[in-house]
Specification:
heterodimer; A: 382 residues; alpha+beta; four-stranded mixed β-sheet; 13 helices; 42% helix; B: 387 residues; alpha/beta; five-stranded mixed β-sheet; three-stranded mixed β-sheet; 16 helices; 52% helix; elongated
Chain lengths: 382, 387
């Protein structure tokens, strides 16, 4: 039987700006035993004044999380993170961590460089190193999946004791950022891999995701549901969405959110009817119970309560999709269209294939996904 | 200090002198080397426990395996003749000409130990008096130095192709003829008008040798030795270096002439800072140089162009129809790469690789036309990015 490889954690003892090496030592020991090379600039000139990144803050001042994004994954897709109208951190693609020797005249940004520094430090100190150190420095890229995008938050800037990254995952996902924990595979990266051949999907990606490239920051917000406390939503945002690349499977798991919220909605309705029951005759009582237990109207009321800028456009896109299979379709509301898309995909997929030979519903599912994220952000569970 | 034996190393046609001296004498020589020889590999401090053990062993008086030095050929590539009479005197004062081929970590360990025990006079004197054997190569060529460095250090991180090239062409570091090279220490932005960064020029040459426009980050030993073989086919390769860089400069001069004072004007059609505002600025960038080097390798290796001389002839025949519009287009293409590339520099290198491949390939639409090569470069770049 093969022996388990022994690993250990190391801490950064110092960074050598000239050799661009982080020197590491085992916890509670003095001797440096390993080096990790990373070309990161910690000093530069701004308005002819020299500035230096402070490297002596404790790493506990920061929280670092790993994401991935099938769309916003260019070296220049660096964004500040805004929360409650305050800048609280940075989104840094792995490809942007190292500084570009090819553009040496690029302006020095001491805050951005500080975030990069603490991000790298966190990556290193959370890595499992072999017990036997390698001969020379190892490059940072040996420790990280190249598709990683790091979110680094400065805790003291958040100013909200109830803040949890999990509750912000739907708003990250709205921009294509999927939480990418260590035990997951980022299959979502291939979800839109064939998009170059699909003009509509391409346009959708441009409008919904790549349009952010003109902005300096990405705004995030908390969902009203506590994601961490809901097993389904937690699994959705920490595993299922990052691992699923098949549109039908993706729709199936997204639809489970509707099932979950509809159940909550119907339960609330039943409770409301029960409170009123003494004022109702038996016929009205059962009639009202029947009304609140209607799935279609429950879904419609879920979406009626959600307001966001893309809602009409996405509803029209869903309707257009149904019209391709049913020219007489006349329903208008988001909930109706969503429910009928569900019926079409789950019960009559052959009609989709007749209209779209390859059965590719990537664009449709992407639109539905945006609706679901918006729903989770806005849904009030009580 | 004394010479024990002198043996000919027939593989590299150099003399290997086995010399015995004491640790104190070697420490003085080593400090001189480390302070004065720019070519000496820098210390990679990874605090291997075995060096801590070695320090303790030296205090007891262990035998240290021989350290290997070489007297590096002087700037003209001449190899001085040494004998028992003048060698020892030379070693004592030759810091900038001496190179530690094997034993750099042992050397640092010795220096660290001497610093640590500096206050303990008895121990210091005891350690300094301990015998140490050195092997010193004389009459060695630059290529010989590289070969021995690689073969002596096979168990460690091998010296990269880049370091080899730096050594071989170190005497060009300030330029040649009318070309001026800026070294890292000078920390100056080159104009591109006969002025380039030496490191960028080396990148371009390495791209020419390897046919790869990407920077050499991590290489395996097999590749490094393969590249060394390319470099060492004959010592006239040095002329190749000059010829390649001169060819690149000729292309710059020709495009400057065709472009008729073209300057990129900011009219809001790009989102980032322009890659370059004039030809010289564009040509001063490593992306342009590396793309050029790799493209020429492709063209010559595939028999599409005979050699660098033929490229020089083609340069004189380039046509500049609509060149100003084409150059504006080039800046837009490079801007788009800056926005959407996963690795901006690498993808810009790829763009210039295709630009030069099209410009000098007779069977390509862009042949001898800057305008069409700009279009083709973008087309090939995009096709490549789609996989």
């Amino acid at each position: 039987m093969e022996a388990l490889k022994q690993t250990r954690k190391m801490v950064v003892s110092r960074f050598d700006g000239e050799q661009k090496n982080f020197y590491l030592k085992p916890q509670n020991e003095e001797a440096e035993e390993q080096a990790v090379s990373c070309n990161i600039k910690l000093q530069g000139m701004v308005n002819e004044q020299p500035l230096q990144v402070k490297t002596d803050f404790p790493l506990t001042n920061y929280s670092v999380f790993r994401f991935t994004n099938p769309y916003l994954n260019a070296q220049n897709d660096l964004f500040k993170i805004n929360y409650s109208d305050k800048s609280i951190g940075y989104i840094i693609p792995f490809s942007a961590i190292e500084d570009n020797n090819e553009n040496p005249e690029e302006e020095f940004d001491v805050y951005k460089q500080a975030y990069k520094y603490y991000c790298v430090k966190s990556i290193i100190e959370n890595h499992d190193f072999d017990f036997q150190p390698s001969g020379g420095p190892i490059h940072l890229s040996n420790l990280v999946d190249k598709d990683s995008i790091f979110v680094i938050l400065c805790k003291s800037l958040i100013g909200d004791a109830t803040f949890k990254i999990e509750d912000c995952l739907p708003s990250f996902a709205l921009r294509g950022y999927y939480f990418f924990p260590g035990n997951t595979k980022p299959n979502v990266l291939s979800f839109a891999a064939e998009r170059t051949t699909d003009v509509d999907l391409n346009n959708l990606i441009d409008t919904r995701f790549l349009a952010n490239r003109g902005n300096a920051s990405i705004h995030i917000q908390k969902s009203k549901i506590a994601i961490e406390q809901n097993q389904l939503l937690y699994l959705l945002y920490t595993k299922l969405l990052v691992e699923s690349n098949n549109p039908l499977h993706r729709f199936l798991i997204l639809y489970q959110v509707i099932e979950l919220l509809v159940e909550t909605k119907i339960r609330k309705g039943i409770n409301g009817v029960c409170i009123e029951k003494d004022k109702l005759n038996n016929y009205d009582f059962f009639q009202k119970l029947f009304e609140v237990n209607n799935t279609r109207s429950a879904i419609s009321s879920l979406f009626d309560a959600v307001v966001f800028s893309e809602k009409t456009e996405i509803t029209n896109a869903l309707k257009d999709f149904i019209l391709q299979t049913n020219a007489n379709y006349a329903k208008q509301t988001t909930g109706d269209c969503f429910y009928d898309i569900r019926n079409l995909l789950f019960h009559d997929f052959k009609r989709v294939i007749v209209k779209k030979n390859d059965g590719d519903i990537s664009g449709l599912v992407l639109q539905c996904e945006i609706l679901i994220h918006q729903l989770i952000i806005s849904f009030i569970p009580y | 200090m004394r010479i024990l034996t002198t043996t000919l190393d027939a593989k590299i046609t150099a003399n290997n002198h086995l010399i015995e001296m004491n640790i104190g004498e070697y420490a003085a020589i080593a400090k001189d080397i480390l302070q004065n020889n720019d070519l000496q590999r820098k210390r990679v401090k990874t605090a291997n426990r075995s060096y801590t053990l070695l320090k303790d062993d030296i205090k007891i008086g262990c035998v240290i395996p021989p350290i290997v030095l070489a007297i590096f050929p002087n700037e003209k590539g001449n190899v001085e003749a040494f004998n028992a009479d003048n060698l020892l005197a030379k070693i004592l004062t030759a810091g900038k000409d001496l190179l530690i081929l094997d034993g750099l970590q042992r050397t640092y360990t010795i220096l660290d130990l001497l610093a640590e025990i500096a206050k303990d006079n008895n121990l210091l004197e005891k350690v300094k008096a301990l015998p140490l054997r050195l092997e010193v190569y004389t009459g060695i060529s630059k290529v010989g130095v590289l070969y021995r460095m690689l073969t002596l250090n096979t168990g460690q991180n091998p010296m990269s192709t880049r370091h080899q090239v730096e050594m071989l062409y170190s005497d060009y570091k300030n330029g040649f003829e009318n070309l001026v090279f800026i070294t890292e220490a000078q920390d100056k932005v080159p104009t591109g008008n006969n002025e380039f960064r030496f490191n960028d020029i080396l990148d371009g040459f390495i791209s020419y040798i390897t046919g790869d426009y990407l920077p050499l980050d991590r290489e395996d030993l097999v590749n490094i030795i393969k590249n060394l073989e390319v470099l060492t086919k004959d010592d006239k390769k040095k002329d190749l270096f000059k010829l390649l860089i001169t060819t690149y400069n000729n292309l710059r001069i020709k495009i400057v002439e065709l472009a008729n004072n073209w300057q990129y004007e900011e009219i809001g059609d790009i989102k980032k800072k322009a890659f370059g505002k004039n030809i010289n600025e564009i040509f001063s960038k490593v992306q342009t140089i590396a793309g050029f080097g790799a493209a020429l390798n492709f063209l010559i290796e595939n028999g599409l162009v005979k050699d660098l001389e033929a490229i020089n002839v083609l340069i004189t025949q380039l046509n500049g129809d609509n060149i100003q519009d084409a150059l504006n287009q080039m800046i837009k293409h490079l801007d788009e790469i800056q926005i959407s590339a996963k690795k901006i520099g690498n993808e810009q290198r790829m763009y210039f690789y295709y630009f030069n491949r099209c410009l000098f390939n007779e069977s390509n639409e862009g042949f001898k036309s800057v305008e069409k090569s700009v279009q083709q470069a973008n087309k090939f770049y995009k096709a490549n990015m789609l996989g």
